[in-house]
């Protein structure tokens, strides 16, 4: 077991270092701007006095490294300073939106993960049949379509033509949970469509890859029925790749959510990021990027740790 | 019960029975399950749902026929070796090739095909289709069809450029890292790990927020582009010159010249904000290309013939060019297609968000955004450019799928 | 020994097709086979003979990409070709069992050995779980596995290869089948481990009077195991006879040629009285990055024009020694001298001429030749690279080299490696090494991937070239028959150390170092009674790993007092 703990600790440490490097990239990229943020806020026509005053106020008179450390210290406790457009606290602006985004991603994941794994196993079992081929074409099409295409099609049919779900997923504080699920169904479904296709294909590939192993042939030659070959002999060894697939796609959900939020005007962090980018509100951009990157890294980390924990060779060392 | 419904079920059931009679198991399974699904659909969605199924089936049949004919056409005009390969292409791949071919024609000959100019206002906003305008007008009264054709040119050209840049840098680094190994391999691998830990769309937004404003000018984009070209070129120089000092001196001189000329030429073709977009895409996707190429080349460098060549004293450049590349072309070509899809979707997504290709340039992503409001009136106009994006990506993916299948030799 | 009893398996005119290049082609072209209860039949043939495919077909099983196209397979009165899939499946594991070549790959890494063992008995509801486990332990004991009560509760990767192979045989026995198919069960094992597995398999098959089909390419092994032998060639039967008759009196030319293979022996050369060795390995320690020491104080010399065979089992450090000499793995300690002068440790630091002197021929000709490069360039490149030959001169040189390796130049000049057979590819590999005009060639298991006849051709060719060009060879091999036929001097390695070295004639005469002795005595011989005699001599528990663990560290031969 010591081996496993060591590996997990090593992986966690690596994740932390990568996160740190990324925070450096995110912070210092903004430093590349000609002039500085104060210049960007006040524009070309600003007087030197105004600039100096603002610089002092924002702490820009200090060296970049000191400011970075201050920013990082704040980031750890979820304090990203104030927006340079509205002046409001960044964490307050995006805090609730981040929760909304997480809700949407979880909603999609709860549907997509079980469905895609079951379908993936099923398609692997039926490989080379007509269903497999239809599924192949369908999933490929779904993966290749941009999220906004799927989103608008769903709006056109489910919202406009049939009126089953609302087209705009705006939220109110006093909504019941069922109401909430109903309102956010279309954006969640869009995400589910994209992610399920992906996960299904990769689950199928992971299992079929294993079916070429000698121990699968051995199982067949022991008279094991086909479903049991997959469930008992292939699946336990496929966990590592499947966990990887799931984490990869959950991470993908986090990115895909940006476009979907814009299509459905959903008050999530993705939309906040897009707004901030077009308004060039750098503290918000930095905060959103760091949050997205951290989630992404966390998920990959979870996948790696999961793969380590399910590996029989590591779990039962010699 | 309308005549349509009766006809619909009769046809389906008849076809199922025929398939069963002639022992076409696969066809029967498909047709009969479609029949069963239709019962459920018919009860829930009524005739409208069945109509959609019928139209979809018709479209599928039509594309299958187009694909079949196009494949036969290609087989006829191709050389003997190519024809043998092409015969193995499934209909999906043939369909993919047909779509790519069509988009390429539309893009290259856009000014001759489009009836109106790219930014030419010819009627009122959102005017419906008439004999003049095949697909109606957009929010400023420009012809949708013409903009769609020009969009093929702009969007695809940018995506292609981005892919080529990302691919050149990533593939070169991957080949070099696999061949030389050691610290060089480690440094590049760790760097790409870091870049890949930021979700691509998020990283693109971050970079665009910085380079998108006043920095999107001729000077900045020229310097950035030259820098990128020099970075790529350094990899080539290091592989060619290895430890010879003179080789490095000559290499770097040539390289700087080439990079400047390249950057200048690019600036003539694209405007600065487009160049920034291409570079952003290239930076984001080159680590992904690197990782894939490293894996493909990694499988080749463990071969004994590479060891034999190394022991002979061959240079890295010879190893890459003569020993590794010929054995990795098939997966690399497939990879190029795959990366193109990613890049294309990213650019379309950015344009859809209003942060990619800037108006008045016609582009599929921004066309969706500009006409998005129409969707709430049940108008499918904004879906047309979105469908074009999906169609091209699907097409490329179909072809890639076939090539991957061929190159892996997997019979699963 | 043949037991003429009830017929268990009857195969008539079996044809099996394989899918390649978009068409189905015959790989088994009409084979008949009759097996009685309790009889052991050896299926023998070279690679591509279709042994393994027939083995699978005996279970009514066709691997992915193959199909049984014609003929009948009748198992105990039941026709397998027309039976339904579930009927056939009901036989597998219960009445016909299978033992695969690589036990390490054929056990599922995710489950304990005993859980895989009891899977079939539970599936067929023959036994309760605990009964099945008791029975498994009993079988482990019969197969002389250490700790029979406990070993089953380990995971496959926690058990060594030889033990795993016996555990798999036990698993095949779980339902007391009527027939077991052994598909090259000892091919992946070292010779010393092979013996204990062979002995265990033979005993258990006899104890339960199980019929077996024993598939192998090794004649000496099949002679120990089988009552009757069937020889196959390219999907067709050559001949079938009882083991004794087959060994004493083979009828067909092909069979005779198989038996005659080990006749080639090159006359032994001796070291010059005085002179500098061409290659001299001095006190070399080496390790792969971050790993344990693989070589420990290795020293030996190779003189001009002589062949030194380096012998040892897998993991003994033979190939690592070659990597140190060629400069692929710089040593931690010690050095390699070339004609008395130190060779730079890394190949990157060697001059073109130093690189030219020392060439290599590889085990797997498939991976040693670039499949996308023409033969003319594969052979021509070293000639152009070192000697700067161009145009007509280069073409002439390539033709000359092709002549040397006995391949018709005009026929092979423009072809690609995948179009050639294994032996031809190996010849091209030799030509590539010769093109550099070296004085020293490392031959890394060059014949072990080849069929015996082809291998013999390669050995003869290497010997001829050595005489013509005064080449020195370092011949890495695990096969003592190869050593007998080509070596002048022998170096025996174990666990990264040289345990014994000397001229060939001395090495094959006692007294030996105990490890050399074990190695020599473990090589199967054609005599059908060899295994029985050996086991009687040494005792059933003193073979294989047990024996090598028992080597006395204080033996004077081991401490080197006499080496």
UniProtKB/TrEMBL annotation, chain A:
It is a multi-pass membrane protein. One of its GO terms (biological process) is transmembrane transport. Pfam families: BPD_transp_1, BPD_transp_1_N. One of its GO terms (cellular component) is plasma membrane. It is found in: Cell membrane. Keywords: Cell membrane, Membrane, Transmembrane, Transmembrane helix, Transport. The chain crosses the membrane at residues 12-30, 102-125, 137-160, 180-200, 242-264, 284-309. Gene3D superfamilies: MetI-like (1.10.3720.10). It comes from the Bacteria. InterPro entries: BPD_transp_1_N (IPR045621), MetI-like (IPR000515), MetI-like_sf (IPR035906). Residues 98-303 form the ABC transmembrane type-1 domain. SUPFAM superfamilies: MetI-like. Belongs to the binding-protein-dependent transport system permease family. This is Peptide/nickel transport system permease protein. It comes from Roseovarius azorensis.
From TrEMBL, chain B:
It holds the Pfam family BPD_transp_1. GO terms for cellular component: plasma membrane. Coiled coil: none annotated. Keywords: Cell membrane, Membrane, Transmembrane, Transmembrane helix, Transport. Gene3D superfamilies: MetI-like. The keyword Heme does not apply. GO terms for biological process: peptide transport; protein transport; transmembrane transport. The chain crosses the membrane at residues 6-22, 27-46, 52-70, 91-114, 156-182, 194-216, 222-241, 248-269, 275-293, 332-357, 383-405. It is a multi-pass membrane protein. This is Peptide/nickel transport system permease protein.
UniProtKB/TrEMBL annotation, chain C:
GO terms for biological process: peptide transport. Pfam families: ABC_tran, oligo_HPY. Residues 9-259, 279-520 form the ABC transporter domain. GO terms for cellular component: plasma membrane. GO terms for molecular function: ATP binding; ATP hydrolysis activity. Gene3D superfamilies: P-loop containing nucleotide triphosphate hydrolases. The keyword ATP-binding applies. It is a peripheral membrane protein. It is found in: Cell inner membrane. It comes from the Bacteria. Keywords: ATP-binding, Cell inner membrane, Cell membrane, Membrane, Nucleotide-binding, Translocase, Transport. Belongs to the ABC transporter superfamily. This is Peptide/nickel transport system ATP-binding protein.
């Amino acid at each position: 077991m010591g081996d496993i703990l060591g590996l997990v600790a090593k992986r966690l440490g690596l994740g932390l270092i990568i996160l740190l490097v990324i925070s450096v990239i995110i912070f210092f990229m903004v430093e590349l701007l000609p002039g500085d943020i104060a210049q960007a806020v006040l524009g070309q026509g600003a007087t030197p006095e105004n600039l100096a005053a603002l610089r002092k106020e924002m702490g820009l008179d200090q060296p970049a490294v000191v400011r970075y450390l201050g920013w990082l210290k704040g980031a750890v406790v979820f304090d990203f300073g104030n927006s340079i457009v509205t002046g409001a606290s960044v964490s307050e602006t995006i805090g609730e939106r981040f929760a909304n985004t997480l809700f949407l991603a979880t909603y999609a994941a709860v549907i997509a993960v079980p469905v895609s794994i079951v379908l993936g196993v099923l398609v692997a079992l039926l490989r080379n049949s007509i269903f497999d081929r239809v599924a192949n074409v369908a999933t490929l099409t779904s993966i290749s379509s941009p999220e906004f295409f799927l989103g608008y099609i769903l709006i056109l049919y489910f919202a406009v033509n049939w009126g089953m779900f609302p087209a705009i997923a705006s939220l109110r504080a006093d909504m019941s949970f069922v109401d909430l699920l109903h309102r956010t169904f279309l954006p969640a479904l869009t995400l589910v469509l994209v992610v399920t296709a992906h996960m299904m294909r990769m689950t199928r590939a992971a299992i079929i890859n294993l079916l070429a192993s000698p121990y699968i042939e051995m199982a067949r030659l022991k008279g094991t029925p086909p479903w049991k070959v997959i469930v008992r002999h292939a699946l336990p060894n496929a966990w590592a790749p499947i966990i990887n697939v799931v984490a990869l796609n959950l991470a993908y959900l986090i990115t895909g959510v940006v476009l979907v939020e814009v299509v459905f005007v959903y008050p999530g962090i993705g939309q906040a990021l897009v707004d901030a980018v077009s308004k060039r509100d750098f503290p918000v951009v930095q905060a959103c990027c760091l949050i997205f990157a951290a989630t992404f890294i966390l998920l990959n980390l979870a996948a790696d740790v999961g793969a380590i924990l399910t590996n029989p060779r590591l779990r039962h060392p010699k | 019960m309308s005549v349509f419904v009766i006809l619909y079920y009769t046809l389906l059931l008849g076809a199922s029975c025929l398939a069963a009679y002639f022992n076409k198991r696969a066809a029967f399974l498909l047709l009969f399950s479609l029949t069963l699904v239709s019962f459920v659909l018919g009860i829930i969605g009524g005739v409208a749902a069945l109509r959609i199924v019928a139209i979809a089936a018709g479209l599928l049949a039509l594309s299958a026929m187009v694909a079949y004919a196009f494949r036969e056409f290609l087989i006829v005009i191709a050389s003997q070796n190519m024809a043998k390969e092409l015969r193995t292409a499934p209909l999906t791949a043939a369909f993919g090739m047909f779509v790519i071919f069509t988009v390429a024609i539309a893009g290259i000959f856009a000014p001759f095909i489009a009836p109106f100019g790219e930014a030419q206002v010819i009627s009122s906003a959102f005017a419906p289709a008439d004999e003049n305008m095949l697909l109606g007008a957009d929010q400023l009264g420009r012809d949708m069809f013409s903009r769609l054709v020009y969009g093929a040119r702009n969007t695809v050209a940018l995506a292609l450029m981005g892919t080529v840049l990302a691919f050149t840098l990533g593939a070169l680094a991957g080949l070099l890292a696999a061949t030389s190994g050691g610290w060089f391999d480690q440094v590049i691998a760790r760097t790409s790990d870091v870049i890949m830990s930021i979700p691509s769309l998020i990283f693109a937004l971050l970079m665009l927020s910085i380079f998108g404003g006043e920095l999107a000018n001729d000077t900045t984009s020229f310097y950035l582009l030259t820098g990128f070209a020099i970075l790529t070129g350094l990899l080539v120089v290091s592989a060619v010159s290895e430890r010879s000092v003179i080789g490095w001196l000559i290499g770097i001189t040539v390289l700087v010249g080439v990079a400047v000329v390249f950057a200048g030429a690019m600036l003539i073709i694209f405007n600065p904000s487009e160049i920034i977009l291409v570079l952003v895409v290239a930076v984001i996707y080159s680590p992904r290309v690197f990782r894939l190429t490293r894996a493909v080349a990694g499988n080749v460098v463990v071969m004994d013939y590479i060891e034999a060549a190394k022991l002979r004293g061959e240079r890295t450049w010879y190893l890459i060019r003569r020993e590794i590349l010929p054995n990795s072309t098939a997966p690399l070509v497939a990879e190029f297609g795959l990366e193109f899809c990613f890049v294309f979707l990213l650019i379309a997504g950015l344009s859809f968000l209003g942060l990619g290709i800037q108006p008045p340039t016609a582009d599929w992503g921004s066309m969706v955004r500009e006409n998005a409001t129409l969707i709430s009136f049940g108008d499918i106009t904004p879906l047309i450019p979105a469908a074009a994006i999906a169609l091209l990506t699907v097409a490329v993916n179909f072809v890639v799928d076939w090539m991957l299948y061929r190159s892996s030799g997997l019979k699963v | 020994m043949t037991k003429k009893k009830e017929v268990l398996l009857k195969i008539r005119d079996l044809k099996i097709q394989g899918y390649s290049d978009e068409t189905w082609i015959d790989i088994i072209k009409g084979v008949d086979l009759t097996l009685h209860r309790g009889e052991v039949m050896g299926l023998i043939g070279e690679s591509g003979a279709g042994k393994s495919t027939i083995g699978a077909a005996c279970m009514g099983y066709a691997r992915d990409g193959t199909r049984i196209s014609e003929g009948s397979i009748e198992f105990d009165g039941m026709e397998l070709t027309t039976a339904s899939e579930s009927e056939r499946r009901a036989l597998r594991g219960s009445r016909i069992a299978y033992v695969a070549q690589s036990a390490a790959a054929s056990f599922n890494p995710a489950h304990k050995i005993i859980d895989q063992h009891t899977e079939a008995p539970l599936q067929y509801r023959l036994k309760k779980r605990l009964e099945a486990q008791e029975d498994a332990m009993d079988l482990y004991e019969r197969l002389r596995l250490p700790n029979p009560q406990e070993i089953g509760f380990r995971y496959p990767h926690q058990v060594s290869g030889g033990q795993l192979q016996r555990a798999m045989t036990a698993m095949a026995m779980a339902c007391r089948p009527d027939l077991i198919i052994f598909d090259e069960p000892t091919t992946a094992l070292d010779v010393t481990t092979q013996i204990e597995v062979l002995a265990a398999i033979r005993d258990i098959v006899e104890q339960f009077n199980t019929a077996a089909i024993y598939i192998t390419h090794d004649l000496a092994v099949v002679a120990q195991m089988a009552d009757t032998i069937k020889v196959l060639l390219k999907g067709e039967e050559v001949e079938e006879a009882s083991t004794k008759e087959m060994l004493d009196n083979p009828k067909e030319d092909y069979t005779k040629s198989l038996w005659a293979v080990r006749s080639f022996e090159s006359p032994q050369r001796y070291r010059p009285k005085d002179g500098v060795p061409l290659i001299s390995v001095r006190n070399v320690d080496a390790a792969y990055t971050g790993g344990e020491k693989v070589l420990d104080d290795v020293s030996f010399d190779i003189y001009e024009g002589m062949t030194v065979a380096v012998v040892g089992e897998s993991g003994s450090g033979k190939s690592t020694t070659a990597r140190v000499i060629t400069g692929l793995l710089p040593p931690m300690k010690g050095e390699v001298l070339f004609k008395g002068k130190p060779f730079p440790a890394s190949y990157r630091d060697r001059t073109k001429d130093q690189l030219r002197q020392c060439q290599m021929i590889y085990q797997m000709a498939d991976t040693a030749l670039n499949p996308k490069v023409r033969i003319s360039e594969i052979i021509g490149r070293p000639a152009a690279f070192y000697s700067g030959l161009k145009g007509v001169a280069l073409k002439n040189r390539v033709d000359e080299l092709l002549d040397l390796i006995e391949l018709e130049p005009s026929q092979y000049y423009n072809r690609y490696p995948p179009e050639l057979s294994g032996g031809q590819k190996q010849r091209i590999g030799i030509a590539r090494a010769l093109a550099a005009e070296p004085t020293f060639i490392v031959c890394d298991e060059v014949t072990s991937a080849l069929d015996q006849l082809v291998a013999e051709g390669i050995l003869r060719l290497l010997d001829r070239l050595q005489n013509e060009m005064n080449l020195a060879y370092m011949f890495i091999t695990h096969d003592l028959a190869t050593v007998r036929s080509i070596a002048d001097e022998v170096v025996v390695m174990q666990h990264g150390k040289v345990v014994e070295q000397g001229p060939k004639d001395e090495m094959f005469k006692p007294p030996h170092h105990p490890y050399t002795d074990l190695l020599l005595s473990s090589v199967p011989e054609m005599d059908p009674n060899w295994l029985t005699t050996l086991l009687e001599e040494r005792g059933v528990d003193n073979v294989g790993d047990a024996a090598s663990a028992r080597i006395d560290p204080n033996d004077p031969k081991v401490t080197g007092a006499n080496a």
